[in-house]
Amino acid sequence: MKKCLLVALSLLLTNAAFSQNGDYNYSIAVRAYNLMQMPRILNQKDGGKFTETSFHSGMLKFNDNQISYRLGGSYLKKNVQIVNNCLNCEEANGKMTDYSFKLGFEKNFNFSRIQPYFGFDIGYRYNKFEGTMVSKNIQAMAVESASLAATGVDASKSGFIASPVMGLKINPIPQVTLFAEASLDFFVFYERQETVSLDVNNTRGFAKYNKSEFLLNPVSIGIQVNIGGNR
C-alpha cells in the first residue's frame, strides 16, 4: 500500500513540476551567450578561433507536443583584425558583418523538468568584411622603393547553411525555460573578394570562389518564454 501511495505521489509531483512544449503554443527565445566559429576571412591564419558574443540572436518557436518548429535569426557587426596565413604576410583591419536566417525543428527526449533534445536547422548566411590590408613583409618594408600603400578589401560570403543541434533545457517554472545547446554549421557559399590599392594607381583585383566550410558552435546559452497556453 505504501509503495502504491509513493508511486501515485511521485506521478502527481512530476506532472505538476514539468513543463512540456505542448502546454504552450509559442516560445520566444534569446541567446544570451554564444561561443562560436565565424567564417574565415580571406586566407585568415587563425580561422578556427572561437568568438564570444552575447544577445545577438533569437528564435520564435511553434510548439507541438514534444516537437518545436523554430524560426531563428542572428546579426553581428564588430571590428576585427586578421593576419593572412603566410610568412610576413598581410594584416587586415576592418569591420565584419554577419547575419543568418534559419528554419528547423527540435524534439525533446522526454517530458521531465530537465529535457535533452536534438534538432536540425537549414537557412541562409551572409558574411562580409570591409577594411584595409597592409603588408607585413619586413624585407619589403626595408626597401625604400617598395610600395607600402594599404589595400582596400571587400570580401563577402553568402550561401546555404545546415546545422545539426544537440541541447538541454531546464524548466524552473512552466512559463520560463533555460537552455544550452551546441551545433555544427555546414556552410556552402559563394565568395567574392575585391581589392583596390590605395595609391595613385588604384589597381583593382577581383576573385570569386565556390567553397564550403564547417563551423563549430560548442556553447549557446539562452532563455525562452513560453506563451499561449492551450490548457
User: What is the terminal-to-terminal distance?
Assistant: 33 Å
Oligomer: single chain
The outline comes out as elongated
Q: How much is the average pLDDT?
A: 84
Low-confidence stretches: 4-19, 143-147
What's the quick description here?
The protein is mainly β and 231 residues long.
Characterize the structure shown.
It contains two helices and nine strands; from the N terminus they run αββββββαβββ. It is mostly beta strands. The protein has an eight-stranded antiparallel beta barrel with strand order 1-3-4-5-6-7-8-9. Strand 8 and strand 9 form a beta hairpin. It is elongated. Residues 4-19 and 143-147 have low confidence and may be disordered.
Quick tags:
single chain; 231 residues; mainly beta; 8-stranded antiparallel beta barrel; 2 helices; 67% strand
List the helices and strands and how they pair.
Elements (H helix, E strand, L loop, with lengths): L1 H16 L6 E14 L12 E4 L3 E8 L2 E17 L6 E19 L5 E22 L2 H5 L8 E23 L2 E22 L6 E26 L2
Antiparallel strand pairs: 1-2, 1-3, 1-9, 3-4, 4-5, 5-6, 6-7, 7-8, 8-9
